[in-house]
Each structure stands twice: as structure tokens, then as C-alpha cells.
Write a structure and sequence with these properties.
322 residues, alpha+beta, Glucose Permease (Domain IIA), 3 domains, 10-stranded antiparallel sheet, two-stranded antiparallel sheet, rod-shaped
Amino acid sequence: MKRVKKYFYNTDTNSFEKLVVPLRTRLLRFLGFISSALVTALIMVAVALQFLDTPKEKLMRKEVLTISERYDLLEQQVNDLNKQLADLESRDNNIYRAVFASAPLPDTIRHGKKYSDTKKLKYIGTDDILDKVVADVQLLSNRIHTQKLSYDTLEQMVRSKEKMLACIPAIQPISNKNLTHVASGFGYRIDPIYKMPKMHTGLDFAAAIGTPIYATADGKVEESGFDNSGYGEYVLIDHGYGYETLYGHMVRIKAKSGEKVKRGQVIGWVGNSGKSTGAHCHYEVIRNSEKIDPVHYFFNDLSPTEYERMVRMAASTNQAFD
């Protein structure tokens, strides 16, 4: 392409003359163009950097998104574990402190370490942050495991407590809602045959022959049969935990030696066998081989008012039936 020649009209000479641009002017024009181009390029680069990500930034943003998703998942796990732990700790506190009065778990075990301040975490690498969260999740898991073990121990204590309570004599050996069958209590009473004070080691419940006699607690029949020393037809039950009960002067025995019985189960019927002056059930409570007053072992049957009445009736120094 041919270079275009430029002319201008010279009014002094009244003629067209060729336009000659000085080198200095051309250099200035060239430098001005280059400067404008550079400024424009810098502006475009700045705009691109502001709104467009570099490959490295894209990779970093993807990594941050992955970390955020993992962190949210771990945080949800921590919240779920905290809820489970709060439930277990609540049960543990209620049972330990309210029921068994046992020492609670130390706070260092129950609460563990506290989470680190997030302001401190901003200077730690992402891998370290995730490792710390994972460690916290593991700590919570260990706490839950510890609480479960503790709760299992409590359940065993509860079951043992329930079993023990079922094996403690707690009802009257015959039906006696109106407390009309108490004939003679525990202590020194007039012997019906020798007519002199003698230790009476049980409670006498006067009742018609054939009245059912009930086991007063869970246990195993230790002895069952006729006793020549005075009890006549009798049953001796071993309840465990140091407790035994004896039922004497039956007309007929139902429970057999070695048989397991439950509280309230019929073990025989009222009679007048052995050393007896009238139809009744002679009832004894034995703890650690010592015969004790049965009047204090009717707490499943009696209200406080009925208990006071029963104590007064049993304390009467009347003649025993045996």
C-alpha cells in the first residue's frame, strides 16, 4: 500500500506545499500512543484480576469449598454427639445423685476439654483445623463411651436393687387388710402352756384353718416339713441378702424344699399343728441368723397410720398362741 502524501496550502506563497512532520513531533506522537496503550492494558488487567479468577485462585476456592463442606459435616456430627451425651449425662446425674448417692464422674471426664477459640485457628493450616475438629469428635465419642459404661453400671445397680427389694419381706403372710388377725407380737409373752414369760420370736396371726399363707418375699424354700420342736408343719424360705422367713403351725404345706417362690405366692394353709393352742400362723423374720421383729417388714401392705396401729397391737403383752 502506497504511503499517502499530505499537502497544505501556504498562504504566503499562494501554493500547495508538501507537509513535512518534524522527527520530534513524530516521536512525541509515538510515545503518546505507546503510553495510552500501556495504560489501557493495565486497566484491562486490573479489571480482569478483580472479577476473574486465576487458575490458582480457582483451585484455592475449590479447596475452601471442600473444606467448608467437610467442616459442616463434622460440626453436625459434633452437635449430634453432644445431644446424645447430654441425655446420658442427665440420666447419670439423676441416678447417681438422687438414687444411689454415689460420687458423680469428675468434670474432667464428664466435660473434657473445651473447643479452641476460632480466632486462634485462623493462623493454622486447614489440615490442622480439620485434624483438630476430628480430634474433638473423637473426644466426644470417648465421652459417650465412658457415659455408656457408667450407665450400664447404674443399670446393673438398679437391677440388683430391684432384685434385693423383691427379696426383702414386705407383706403380711395372710390377708389382713383390717389388721384384725394380729394375735401376739414379738418379745417376751406369756407361754400358753407353761404360763410364764418366754421370748416369742415372731408374730402370731390368728385365722381360720385353711386360710392361705403367702410368701412375703421372693426366695427359695430352704426347709419344708414337720418340726418336732414346736413349729409343727412349717416352711423356711431363704430370700438371700441375709434374709429368711419362717411360717409355722400349718395344716398343710404347698411349697416344697428347693422350690423358688415369689412374693404373694401361696406356700401353705393356716393350721394348728405343733405346739399351738389355736389356729394361727406363726411368722418370723430372720436377718443374718438373728430373729428380728417382723412388724417392721410390712411396708408394702401398711400406710403410716396402719403401721402405727400394727406396732401398738403387736406390743401388747398378751399370751402367745405358741
